[in-house]
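Explain the record.
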Amino acid sequence: MTDLRMQIKEKIDEQWEEQLEFLQMIGRFKSTLGNEGALQNYLADYFQNEMQLSTEKIIPDIKEMSKHQGFSPVEWGYEGRPVVVGTWSSAGKKKGKSLILQSHVDVVPEGPHEDWRYDPWGATIDGNRMYGRGIQDMKSGMAAMVFAVRALQSLGIRPQADVYLESVLEEEITGNGALATLLAGYKADGALIPEPLGQQALIGQVGVIWMRVRVKGAAAHVERASAAVSAIEKAYVLIQAIQEYRTYTNERPKHSYFKDHPHPLNVNVGKIYGGDWASSVAADCTFEVRVGLYPGEDPQAIKDEVSQWLVDAAAKDEWLKEEPPEITYYGFHADGVALEKDLDVFKTLGKVHKQVTGEEMQFSATTATTDVRFYSVYDDIPATCYGADGGNMHGPNEWVDLPSVKRVTETYANFILDWCQAEKI
């Protein structure tokens, strides 16, 4: 087995330049929300023709997904935006444990280009780093899991249980891509998601909901502003209430996994738009908010709580009590996750992590959300996240540490070797 692990390491080194080219290729697709189709089609072709995997494209079905606890409501469709699953079938009778390797291809918008030193869609290599939107989060993970499998394939190694390579969408806004794979029947004895956690294993994460608040005013030309009410100014009354809620929710007793975090539940006003003319008092203003919640809390209960908080704040304002805000929810309706450290997936991952790095594996709890909830909360599939290191995630000049991508690739290959009882055929 030691000799086989050395062969894996050597094969990953041998294929490294090809892996970098693959990461650059997928990094250059502008796969923001609604624009994932081209990259998904590329990956479907790659899975089928370069890796000889049995490949399926799945169009998420809103009607079917909406019946599931983990569904997040959307205001768009899925035509031309498939989820892709490639199946690496076991050799003969199943002996090992089956495995899902899942990565998302959707990325957040790049923001103003003048804030970037590098082309956000250029996948530029500078030293030991690659720069670009989504390179760290999490196209680096896609490259790691793909080339972990490719290294094993090149050595004539086959798993003794099925391995599913999944390329999903909307991890950054709903998670419905992961949900679609489960509803299509793709389940396994374990799942790994290569989120870029600096080669630490995820043990906990917060839940997330997204809300939209619309405020109405009374429009007029600024010459008659005294007779009008600005929706933008009234929106700020409610934004202040959101800020007060943020303080309130973080002062409540914390979940044990976040007890040492000073501010685990981010409540963020991330978007605002209103008015239509600089010389007119705004008649309409809308802002959108991200609200965090602890593992074990019900997303719907938090929605009700935040809604009531804003209704109470509006009742104290002369205008808003007569014209209350319109509060709606879309996007994330996500539960938090708290995992136990004695899961077999952690035992195997910790073992191979130490073999590759020489160090004990560390655990982390994140104040963000990931797709791991679909396996660990909504289904009986032990799962965690483990991926590369990097910086500026969701910000300008996002980058991934390339040596860490190589180490994650080797760790994943060795995980498959042990978890799936892979053998050289």
About this structure: Residues 15 and 201 are 26 Å apart (CA to CA).
